[in-house]
Amino acid sequence: MTNETRTAPPPVARPRRTPLTREVIETRIARVIKWFFIALFVLMTAFPFYWMLNLSVRPIGDVLQNPTRLFPTGDQLAHFWDSYASVLVDFRFLTYIGNSLLLSLVTVFFTLLLAVPGAYAVTRLRFRGKSLMSWGILLVYVFPAIVIAIPLFVIYSKLGIRGSLPSMIVLYLVLTLPVALYMLRSYFQTIPAELEEAALIDGCSRISTIWRIVVPLSVPAIASVALYTFMIAWNEILFAILFLTEFSNSWTLPLGLMQLDTQEVPRTYLMAGSVIITVPVIILFFAFERFLRRGLTAGAVKG
Length: 303
Hints:
Layout: H1 22-57, H2 60-65, H3 74-78, H4 81-90, H5 93-124, H6 130-142, H7 145-159, H8 165-188, H9 193-201, H10 206-217, H11 219-235, H12 238-244, H13 253-258, H14 267-287, H15 289-298
Helix pairs in contact: 1-14, 4-14, 5-8, 5-11, 6-8, 7-12, 8-11, 9-10, 11-14, 11-15
């Protein structure tokens, strides 16, 4: 019988623990604090929407008897459409959705149509009063809408054009154009001028340069402006109250939502109307989120 030499297995290497230095402790504490505030922010923003959705699917009797119920029952979920059907049909929200959608989309179209060449002109072209116009854009941007609302109301009343959707588009452009010009001007400043000069040397006109060079490079900013403009027009209430209150066929969603905020209308209907007016904006925001993030941050640092 031969004696076999048996070698001892190599020792298992234990993972080295990171020494608890001050830097490591501060990093871990900062990580915990970061996730705590993220969770708190999500709770503060998501829970109100969930509570609104919860109230919209429950009957008013259950809301009065159990106001703190966090989750609707299965039977209530099976009849969730009752409140929404009443709001859409009985309170004419289908008409208001059409009006708001038309106003918002047309406002976005004309805002971009005017803001893209306007912002390009202020950024690239040289003309007398350019600096004054740049400051004027910023001044109009921060100017409160309530200051110009009354003069516009007087002018529209004398012209007899209150209550028409085309006249409201002009009013909404007053709100959206300064914002669009300010945002696009900041973004256009980050585009190298050499690209446009090369296009001009190759024979492109200014309009062709804007269409072929500036617009493709500015898709994130243009998408951000379009989304922001849509949100302004979709949620606008001041001009709608002043110019459309007497013309129910031209009401927008914010005005339609106001009629639900009365003692005679169940709170569940008000919550259903709030969900209807909120969901499209949320869907658009998540659909354009990557453009919105790039468009808002790209113009923050020039170069």
